């Protein structure tokens, strides 16, 4: 593959991006563009849809079809697109707040319907665009601008949730694990039905600063050390598990997608 | 053995230094303005991790097979 | 061919949508609009279209907008509480210029109100439910036949203007059963949305304007489409430039407000240049017309204006037809939402008499008659 192929999916002339130095959004965008290039996806049959927030601006730097809707509703919009244009490969790239707070209902129902969408959730544990408030995915007790003495609420594992709801493919990785990230985005793009790729990402400006994780380098090292392969994680004793998070493939199956379900009875 | 060439676009670089710190072969140092400086290109194996991790499309790695 | 059928207002809207070419429906059950959702679940697969029951009204209108951006004529149906939820994405459709039709079957409000009972109190909610300056089109049918005809028109206008169009039905009209002449697709003038024909490279989704309306491609077509609810440039990429913002928002209003002659004009009944004029819309216009006909047969000189396009409010026509009247009666089953529009047209409040009802019952001809007689004495 010529190394520049990914650039046909990126609006290079619109760079530099609006994101802070070290932000994971650009890394995920590049991994996505590389996956598109390796699969030789035609830009006119490829749709990138975004939520609202920092990661919502990813679509401002792509050259394929682009949709940017209202906060949390992206998956509902794309459900409509996919029913009338099933030939489009749709990627919904959402932030943790967009997906798990305001958009939680659409997320669960899209997974339940098994809509043929690759959903990439860039989880930086907070609302970056509005100044670093906690999201449902921020871990328990972390400091954010709306939890100055520690987040009082428990978090939720959206990977397990998507698996339970009926998604065909679920994978979690981090911005540090770039090769794995690109490869599994590519694998998800090859699947039918609902795929979730959760990418835990640094927010050097707010989350890392509030929680005294240090600079972007320290934050990436934290991701490298804390996120261990799911097989290793499952072998751990419960007390040990508390200090780590798992990454890897949770779900990989081939249940019929929404389009197949709706066409089943038509003969 | 692969030969590689690394190019940095200062118009796009935001000086996050991810490339500098995570290069397995310590190819980069930081220049006086805070930009990455390619100091030991001979050590580069062309693994492209710096390219993959650069959030700002500011870094390209070209590799070619050495005859 | 034209077929005669006995239909409810809700059924008429549904058949009209299908015959206008709608092939996508997403909705959520809500009284008194549910029959549209049910009938679509049966008809859409028959016509090789799509029906989907979403998790709420926010998702319903979102799926409709998505389907429309994929190239389908798409619609949904709801009532007050659902309209409230849809408002977010109706604003999105106005901003991103996505054709779609919303059938709002008004029920008694505010809030959950009385689910099964009638009112006409969503006049302002359909116009200003969504924040920000924008224009959209709202049509109000007064009979089952009108429900059919104006639903077809709603699709044509939404495609022509690339805007959400709301059909303002109500709980009474939705369930009353009347004879309807159904003109089938071959006899209907159907507007097909304009598609880009120029070179694919360098195509700007919001760059080519025809009558102030952008010529946009669909998702999946070879001309790459970029759509956002943010202020955007001609390319469809976002912008926070103040000049771009002003031009965009002013064009969104201009593209509809400057072409009002293309929208369904008010009907005028009774005596021209009458001293007494009744202004009404929807099912209340039926009672009003009966009252006007009765008083005119008794020697009165009364006229009657039935608004069919509610938004943009047909100010010019209303001023033209009502300017000579000594008294204007505004008949509506709400506290006076249309009456307020007449005040903003410049009619002095003392010239306007509201005939209003807020008890969840329809306005009767005798109630209008009484008001007319009081004004004439």
Shape of chain B: globular
The overall strand count of chain C is 17
Ends distance of chain C: 50 Å
Low-pLDDT stretches of chain C are: none
CATH topology of the largest domain in chain C: Rossmann fold
Count of discrete structural domains of chain B: 1
- Assigned CATH class of chain B: Alpha Beta
Percent in strands of chain B: 25-35%
Number of H/I helices of chain B:
2
Q: What radius of gyration of chain C results from the CA coordinates?
A: 21 Å
CATH architecture of chain B: 2-Layer Sandwich
**Pair with the biggest interface:** A-C, 36 and 45 residues
Major β-sheet of chain B, in short?
A: 2 strands, antiparallel
Whole-number average pLDDT of chain B? 92
Task: Look up the CATH topology of chain B.
Answer: Alpha-Beta Plaits
Helical content class of chain B: 10-25%
Order of SSEs of chain B, N→C? EHEEHE
Mean pLDDT of chain C: 97
Tell me the strand order in the biggest sheet of chain B: 1-4
CATH class of the largest domain in chain C: Alpha Beta
Full CATH superfamily name of the largest domain in chain C: Thiamin diphosphate (ThDP)-binding fold, Pyr/PP domains
Could you describe the 3D structure shown?
Chain A is of the alpha/beta class and 267 residues long. In chain A, 35% of the residues lie in helices and 19% in strands. In chain A, strand 7, helix 6 and strand 8 form a beta-alpha-beta unit. In chain A, helix 1 crosses helix 6 and helix 3 crosses helix 4. The termini of chain A are far apart. The model of chain A has no long low-confidence stretch (mean pLDDT 96). In chain B, the strands form 2 sheets. Chain B has a two-stranded antiparallel ribbon with strand order 1-4. A two-stranded antiparallel ribbon of chain B has the order 2-3. Chain B is globular and about 30 Å long. The model of chain B has no long low-confidence stretch (mean pLDDT 92). Chain C has a 7-stranded mixed beta sheet with strand order 3-2-4-5-7-6-15, with helices on both faces. Chain C has a 5-stranded mixed beta sheet with strand order 12-14-13-16-17, sandwiched between helices. In chain C, helix 4 links the parallel strand 4 and strand 5. The radius of gyration of chain C is 21 Å and the shape is globular. In chain C, 56% of the residues are buried. The mean pLDDT of chain C is 97. At the A-C interface, strand 2, helix 2 and helix 4 of A face strand 2, helix 3, helix 4 and strand 11 of C.
């Amino acid at each position: 593959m010529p190394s520049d192929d990914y650039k046909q999916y990126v609006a290079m002339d619109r760079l530099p991006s609006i994101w802070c130095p070290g932000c994971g959004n650009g890394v995920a965008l590049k991994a996505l563009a590389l996956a598109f290039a390796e699969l030789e996806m035609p830009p006119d049959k490829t749709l990138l849809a975004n939520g609202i927030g920092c990661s919502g601006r990813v679509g401002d730097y792509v050259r394929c079809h682009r949709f940017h809707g209202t906060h949390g509703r992206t998956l509902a919009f794309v459900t409509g697109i996919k029913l009338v244009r099933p030939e489009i490969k749709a990627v919904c790239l959402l932030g943790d707040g967009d997906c798990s707070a305001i958009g939680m209902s659409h997320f669960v129902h899209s997974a339940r319907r098994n809509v043929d969408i690759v959903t990439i959730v860039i989880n930086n544990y907070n609302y970056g665009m509005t100044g670093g408030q906690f999201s449902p995915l921020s871990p328990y007790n972390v400091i954010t601008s709306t939890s100055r003495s520690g987040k009082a609420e428990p978090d939720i594992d959206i990977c397990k949730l998507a698996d339970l709801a009926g998604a065909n493919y679920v994978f979690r990785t981090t911005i540090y694990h770039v090769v794995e990230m690109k490869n599994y985005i590519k694998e998800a793009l090859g699947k039918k039905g609902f795929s979730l790729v959760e990418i835990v990402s640094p927010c050097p400006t707010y989350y890392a600063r509030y929680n005294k994780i240090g600079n972007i380098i320290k934050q990436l090292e934290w991701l490298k050390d804390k996120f261990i392969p799911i097989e290793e994680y499952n072998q751990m004793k419960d007390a040990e598990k508390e200090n780590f998070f798992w990454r890897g493939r949770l779900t990989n199956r081939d249940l019929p997608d929404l389009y197949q379900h709706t066409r089943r009875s038509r003969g | 053995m692969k030969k590689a060439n690394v190019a940095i676009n200062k118009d796009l670089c935001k000086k996050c230094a991810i490339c500098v710190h995570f290069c397995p072969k310590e190819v980069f140092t930081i220049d006086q303005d805070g930009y990455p400086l390619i100091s030991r290109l001979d050590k580069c194996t062309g693994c492209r991790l710096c390219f993959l991790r650069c959030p700002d499309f500011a870094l390209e790695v070209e590799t070619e097979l050495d005859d | 061919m034209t077929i005669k059928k006995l239909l409810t207002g809700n059924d008429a809207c549904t058949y009209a949508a299908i015959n206008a070419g709608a092939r996508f429906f997403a909705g959520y059950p809500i009284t008194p609009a549910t029959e549209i959702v049910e009938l679509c679940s049966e008809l859409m697969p028959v016509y090789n279209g799509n029906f989907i029951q979403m998790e709420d009204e926010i998702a319903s209108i979102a799926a409709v907008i998505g389907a429309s951006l994929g190239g389908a004529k798409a619609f949904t149906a709801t009532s007050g509480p659902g309209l409230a939820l849809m408002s977010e994405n109706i604003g999105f459709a106005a901003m991103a210029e996505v054709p779609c039709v919303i059938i709002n079957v008004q029920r008694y409000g505010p809030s959950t109100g009385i689910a099964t009972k009638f009112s006409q109190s969503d006049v302002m909610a359909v116009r200003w439910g969504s924040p920000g300056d924008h224009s959209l089109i709202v049509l109000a049918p007064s009979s089952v036949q009108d429900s059919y005809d104006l639903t077809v028109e709603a699709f044509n206008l939404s495609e022509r203007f690339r805007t959400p169009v709301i059909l303002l039905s109500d709980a009474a009209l939705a369930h009353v059963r009347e004879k309807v002449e159904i003109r089938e697709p071959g006899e209907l003038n159907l507007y097909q949305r304009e598609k880009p024909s120029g070179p694919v490279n360098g195509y700007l989704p919001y760059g080519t304007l025809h009558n102030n309306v952008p010529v946009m491609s669909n998702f999946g077509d070879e001309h790459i489409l970029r759509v956002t609810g943010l202020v955007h440039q001609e390319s469809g990429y976002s912008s926070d430039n103040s000049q771009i913002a002003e031009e965009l928002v002013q064009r969104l209003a201009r593209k509809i407000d400057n072409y009002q002659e293309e929208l369904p004009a008010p009907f005028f009944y009774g005596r021209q240049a009458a001293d007494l004029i009744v202004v009404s819309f929807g099912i209340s216009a039926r009672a009003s017309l009966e009252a006007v006909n009765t008083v005119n047969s008794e020697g009165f000189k009364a006229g009657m204006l039935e608004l069919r396009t509610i938004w943009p409010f047909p100010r010019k026509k209303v001023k033209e037809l009502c300017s000579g009247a000594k008294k204007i009666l505004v008949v509506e089953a709400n506290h006076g939402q249309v009456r307020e529009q007449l005040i903003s047209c410049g009619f002095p409040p003392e010239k306007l008499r509201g005939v209003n009802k807020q008890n969840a019952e329809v306005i009767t001809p005798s109630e209008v008659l009484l008001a007319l007689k009081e004004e004439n004495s």
